[in-house]
Amino acid sequence: MTKDLYDVVVIGSGPGGLAAAIAAKKNGADDVLIIERDVELGGILLQCIHNGFGVEIFKEDLPGPGYAQRFINEALSLGIDTLLDTMVLDINANRRLYVTSKRHGFKEIHSRAIVLAMGCRERTRAQINLPGSRPAGVYTAGTAQRWTNVEGYMPGSHFVILGSGDIGMIMARRLTFEGAKVERVLELMPYLTGLTRNYVQCLLDYDIPLQLHHTVNRIIGNHRVEAIESVQVDDRLQPIAGTEEIIPCDTLLLSVGLIPENELSKMAGVKIDPITNGPFVNDEFQTNVPGIFAAGNVVHVYDLVDWVTEAGFSAGASAARYAVAERQKENRSIPMIAGENVRYIVPHRLDKSHMQEEDIRLQMRVRNPIEEPVWVEVHDGSNLITRKAEQYVRPGEMVTVELKPKHFAEVEKAQSLTVNIVKRK
Amino acid sequence: MEDAVQEKYDAIIIGGGVVGCMVARWLSRYEMKVLLIEKCSDIGTATSSANTAIVHAGYDPLPGTLKARMNVEGNKMWDQLAGELNFAFERRGDYVVATTDEEFETVKTLMKQGEENGVPGMILLSGEEVKSREPEITPNVTGALWASTGGICDPFAVTVAAAENAVMNGVKVMLDTAFEDFVMEGKRIVGVKTNKGTFGCRWAINSAGLYADEVMHKAGVRPEFVIKPRVGEYFVLDRAEITINNVLFPTPTSKGKGILVTTTVHGNTIIGPNSVLKDDKELKAVTREGMNEIWDGALKLVPGLADKRRCIIAVFAGNRPLGNAPCKNPAVKYNSDFIIEIPEEVQGFVNLGGIESPGLTSAPAIAQEVVNLLKEAGEPMQEKADWNPIRLPRIHFRDLERRDQEKLVEKDPRYGRVICRCENVTEGDIIAEIHAPIPATNYDAIKRRTWCGTGRCQGGFDMPRVVAILAKELGVSPLEISKKGDESKFLQRPTKVTEG
Hints:
CATH topology of the largest domain in chain B: FAD/NAD(P)-binding domain
Largest sheet of chain A: 7 strands, mixed
Number of domains of chain A: 3
Oligomer: heterodimer
Number of helices of chain A: 8
Radius of gyration of chain A: 30 Å
Strand content of chain A: 25-35%
Helix content of chain B: 25-40%
CATH class of the largest domain in chain A: Alpha Beta
Number of helices of chain B: 12
Number of domains of chain B: 3
CATH class of the largest domain in chain B: Alpha Beta
Distance between the termini of chain A: 53 Å
Largest interface: A-B, 54 and 58 residues
Shape of chain A: elongated
Number of strands of chain A: 26
Strand content of chain B: 15-25%
């Protein structure tokens, strides 16, 4: 069962989110919750079944699910709560979250600190203004990867891949393993946009041709992709007439960039850097909204997962520190209870530490007039802290009583303070 | 044997676009056995699915044309229609914006034309007035025509709602059913041959949109009538990025209404269309040139879009069926009028053709006109005692207030599972459409009805999940699930399986 209030809530359970939750728990956060929209923890790592993960952190070369599992095991052994198959609909600047899921229904959760770890999404054909028809068979590389590696279906047989990003190159190799033919990888820029090691291990080793300074000029096919027309581009990245080539294929994969996923961040009032498309953060990975932190690809797109994990550790530890400070502030703050013949007291709550430096004046109104001498007494439940004599009290006239620094020693242990107004006899 | 008539109908409607579905809904009011056939795997997939979603005021068409009359009559019917069928419709009003004194003269002419057509609620505004009303407008604005009766709608929802109401009232709809030919007895149509068999009928109604010319030629009607697909390309922008309050038209030229900037009922800004004549009726491709043309066109009206090109979330093209039918009124020189007729050459045929813009606006008026024509032709048109004009709205999680969302999830937990995170479409929303009166059985059908996959990730997240839900609900393998019908399946085969 999840609670209504947490020290730290982490949104997303990819490498950034898992690391943040673990670090939060290890750095003093009592209750930590991970909210994940998929049915299991691990995020996009679960579909990255290739190796290349963990070289920096574990000095081992692990596949994505294996890398994730180490952190999942640790998170679960630390007693971190999880809400799976659950979507966060809204967050506000007061760190209140509205979430929904089929299993748990609609919930409102409050958190002392939040770590945003929603990762990123893939750029689409519309964002690169790709011309042509709109048939089936045009997929982002990540969507194709999910189908192939998680759901066990091949989205095509003859592929062209646009973009030399890492997911695209890794999918080129993966699809080749599955018996598909990858006709070509096209890259608009005059240079490779992914890692060189992926070029060597995924394209060169499998004789998959890469054409730099080329793009898709149009998609052909009304129902299913039948071919694409490729074209060379000039230094201004504009198509060069006469260089068009029809490449028959049934699927076009797009690996044309990632965009940090910050729709929730914006709801909470988090300011976004127009260059990274992620939140502006300080060295603790705190955003402009106090108590809201961000880690991983939601901040900027990383090249290696190990760095995402490190960022997650850092953000999680910061979030824990923030939450602990918040909790201490809450513990210092006690409610003022209107007792006998008191209608209300202002302030409603008192931060005990403030009594160390200055007098605190409690202001109140009585319920009924008492036309004889009274005590205005401040109790902590068992002991009388202080009292003040008045000749009478009337609802029309405000009553006050002061708490002084000398009372601090007694008030420090109190969970609440009650004011009673009683006849002196 | 293959010509054996499977079943007999009073009327068979050929084509399930917005016009065909509206005619079906109108005929469902009467004691008639009606069949609607649609060649695609969903209704409303051609012209009705890719247009500007505008309910036009009626100042554009030339006075005296059928287009003008249908536009103005149709426009008046939309409030009641939206009320009965429960689809999104907002009478926001529209501007025709002039940016030179010369253009303002054209705009004044347009207003006169509108008055002649009987369009109510038009006024001329000065440049300053337009600027104060629509802050994003170009500073070059010299004035505008304001037409208060212009509106915007969700055209997918209109088509679906009309068809569902028709089905509720007894009309049969057959999808994936393509018209092949008529069965004639002398000069009388007595049946329709399709790829799913032959059906008898007393009336065949041609609402085949882009293919209306080919259908009428099979009946021996108007051999000279030809439809040319007129492609229009569009951009859709991310909701969060720019807000346009109303519909902004440029001043029309001899080439057409021009590239406009408008808002959708979902709050996205939409830009387009251009107008390019093509030969292929099926090709709905966008071109590099076309995209640049509409972008430049939009900047003339709203220069603030200049740094928003990165906010484009969807690009699409639609085909409008431009016909060559001369206006029936010989005094009006116009050669692309609507055809709405019971031709004399054959019996049992209601012929609709060349229904391009303002076809969506006109659809209810055209449907009423079909009823009138049938009455004139001697059909009894006896009203059903139990006809129900109301099609209740489907619940959409995204449109509810938070408390109502909470209650819905409590009642049906499937609404608690968000499948499309950009547009907040849930499993419950999707399943409801799969089992609706006109079942949505492919991805695009789900998309048009729920808005799933129309946001900034364009299906990147939801697509595998929607495919899985469709497969489960339809009881088939995910390999059978398509984008828009059998020829557009998403997946080809399982990955390699190890033996044992």
